[in-house]
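Now read these lines:
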Amino acid sequence: MHHKQDESVGQLIEEFLTARATRKPSPHTLEAYRRDLRAVAALVEGATPLPLDQVMISDLSPRVMRAAFARFAAPRAASSVHRAWSSWNSFFTFLVAEGVVAGNPMPAVGRPRAALPQPKPLRGEDTPEELLASVAREDGRQRDPWPERDVAVLALALCAGLRLSELLALRVSSLTGRAGERRVDVAGKGGRPRVVPVEPELDRVLAAYLDSRARRFGSRSVRPDSPLLVDRRGEPLRRGGLQYLVDSCYRRAGIGDRVPRGARLHALRHTFATRLAEDGASAAEIMRLLGHASLASSQTYIEVTAGQQRAAVRSNRTNRALAGLVPLSFDPAG
């Protein structure tokens, strides 16, 4: 055991953050760690916050941590408590690796399940169609219009549900299979590759894009190992360039107000998944096509869609007309 077990939690939190800083997290992430760690540590003795130089690491038994977390959790949302639990789990993992403590007490501290993020598709029934039609038209105001490329990017997100990182990783050779059985091989998140079928309409859009690219930059520019998506100079499209491209497509189509906040490209993927759910796809099918790690993420699309369908039925005027026909005291189960 290490002499550091006599150190205060305040000192060790700063050491942990210094070690984390070498991984180059955002300043926002480091600040969130600091806030979570300090807030829980201050509640170790009771509801009145303690100065952190008075809290010793050797005081933090599983029982003490459970009580501190219970105090921390009382006024807060489950998602905040879940994030703080993860911060403390990382902190104790660091302390075990450094030989400061013998074990991590966090598995003995209950944590709420984090709420799954809600889908954020484009708003409006025909918005995806409006977007594609608008971008497919040449816009005289653009310096160097390339509608074939722009439509291909939007179509891969809307009709194959690809993430930003997955789009950037595509090669020309990622499109495989013969006509009628085309597919795209996706290097998915967390090392989970998947295959997404390519319908003839999407296949034609991608072929038109590659044809326009060969005309712009020569046939050597579409070698199998070259990136599928390139910028207007023929260089591989990068993250910022792709985000800018999608934003400019929204602006040109005049639908910026229908894009959920914080979900620019992701709104297209969410639209793909939501439409799958609306058309009756199962959670397992959605999970396979979107490359989700768990069925729970896929299930949220089905639940949201079911809720929207119920709301639509609920607002049906004919349904409301039935209300006057049957007395409220009538029990259908009886």
The chain is about 50% helix and 5% strand. Strands lie at 175-176, 183-186, 194-197. The chain has a mean pLDDT of 86. The chain has two domains: 3-108, 127-313.
